[in-house]
Amino acid sequence: MRLPFDLIAALLAVEAIGRMHPDTRLGSAVGVHGALLLFWLAVWLMHELVARATEWRTRFGHLPQGVPGPDGSPPRLHPMEFHARWALLAQAASVLLFAFFLYEYNWPQRTQYWPAWAGLTPERLQGWFGGTYEQGLEWSRRLQRSQLANGFLDLFPFLVAMLVSWIPKLRLLDGRSSSRVKLVRWLGFEARLTLLPFVFWMAMGLFADAWYFGMPFAPEAVRRWASSDTVQAMVVLGALLLFFLAGVPFLIVRLWQCRPLPEGELKERLNALLARSGVKTRAILVWGPSGMGFANACVLGPWGPMRYVLISPGLSESLSLEECEAVVAHELGHARYGHLALLGVLLVGLVSLGTIATQWAQPWSPLEQSALFFALIVVYFRLLFGAVSRACEREADLASAELVGSPLPLMTALVKIALMAGGIQHVYSWHHDSIAKRVERLMRDGLDRDRIARYHARLRRFRMAFTALVALAAACAVLLAMDQARAERRARSGRMPEIVAQDRD
Ligand SMILES: [Zn+2]
Predict the structure, then answer these.
(1) How far is the CA of 474 from the centre of ligand 1 (A)?
(2) What's the 37 CA to ligand 1 centre distance in angstroms?
(3) Which of 120, 241, 376, 494 would bridge 115 by S-S if both were Cys, CB 3.0 to 4.6 A apart?
């Protein structure tokens, strides 16, 4: 799975600039279209330059990273790493350009006119639903506030920019895989891997719209019940929990077009492994296209009845049966040692910290608040999540050695995967560590049962302490949010706090 920080930053920019209302003037339509085209062109050009520079580094196709020097000096930067660094800079520049475009052309205000663009005028709505012209106007106003439509339109320029930015990368991929991949197929594949936060945002928009448009039709008792802060908070929390436990695995399996594992020896052996591990799993599925050199596996869903293990065809094509077993055993290790639930705890921690930080930064402007929140996300993920994720990878590696009975098949599988991906064994990954390091650790600890048991105990202690800490932060965040809601209601009603307090009794 991939964390698209650029998309998250773009979402936060939309939120912040939408709340700023810099002015109500919209400027000429020609200017906006010209600016959009220039924005997309600039994004493509930046990524094209990065791809060209990377190609130049791989021009001989041999040992792209070189070898460590005789004095032990490290090998030079791997072209993939070079590409990742410069692509990250290009992404940061794209987000800044997008934020400038949003602000300068008043884009979030402009998109609120979408019912008029789509021909949904008050007259037409009146014709469809009957009633007076005023009611038609009211429907048109309500549509203007649709979170689903506005959310999509606000982000649309950046979604196109993301597609454009992936085009140059395809050439790099073509350089190392034998078969040529069609552009549309490649873009679809990248989009499926990257756009999960966007799908989540759209799902939230749909949920908010269903609430907003459905409420006027609900009976009086339901409406009164739904207007309570506590009920709204419970509904939102319940929806998020359900989304995390069941919605995310359900969506990803469909978004990534997963298919059942074909009948055969591999399926039999993996099912036997599953039974032996004692980890409850709904299915092992095949994920992703074949022939793209894409070799990966993952496990989805903290909750057994909605848990899937996914393996790519590239993996089963190039690894032996024992190696496939070891890779799946690694994924089962993630499930068995509660890493997926820990991911949920990490997210709750981030949201709680975000709530506390936003309260603290109340006097700041919306843009500053969003910048603070984004900085918090980056620091939280790169430092805390990165360290936790690397520790979990290590535990899952050891769990694989335990379940399969030997660390060897996972070690050879990792080395094969690194070679197939262009010799990336020394490339450091902030959430996985380098493959060379993982192999080294497996060699050292993989057969030492005592050491493995001590490592499991250490991580179990960490999980418990961290969960307690997050529960504390979440309690603080809920209290602060309730306080805030009360203060807002007080400000709206303009009454003295004492009277409001009496009213509530
Ligand atoms: Zn893993």
Answers:
(1) 27
(2) 40
(3) 120
Task: Report the separation in Å between the CA atom of 398 and the middle of ligand 1, taken as the mean of its atom positions.
Answer: 11
Give me the half-sphere count of Cα atoms (radius 13 Å) on the Cβ side of residue 68.
Answer: 7
Give the SS3 label for residue 486.
helix
pLDDT of residue 498: 45
| Residue 261 Cα to chain centre, angstroms | 26
Q: How far apart are CA 371 and CA 282, in angstroms?
A: 40
> What are 304-348's pLDDT values in tens digits?
888 999 998 888 888 999 999 999 999 999 999 989 889 889 888
Q: Tell me how far the alpha carbon of residue 395 lies from the centroid of ligand 1, in angstroms.
A: 9
- Tokens 């409001």 correspond to what residue? 500
Q: How far is the CA of 319 from the centre of ligand 1 (A)?
A: 17
By residue count, the chain amounts to 505
**How much is the pLDDT for 329?**
94
Ligand 1 mean position, distance from CA 169 (Å): 25
| Of residues 221 and 343, more confidently modeled | 343
Question: Which H or E run includes 320?
Answer: none
255-292 burial, b if ≥16 CB within 10 A, otherwise e? ebebeebeeeebeeebeebbeebebebbebbbbbbeeb
58 vs 139: which has the higher pLDDT: 139
- Residues 324 and 308: their CA atoms lie apart, in Å, by 16
- Output the CA 195–ligand 1 centroid distance in Å: 21
Distance 467 CA to ligand 1 centre (A): 21
Inform me whether the pLDDT recorded for 140 exceeds 60: yes
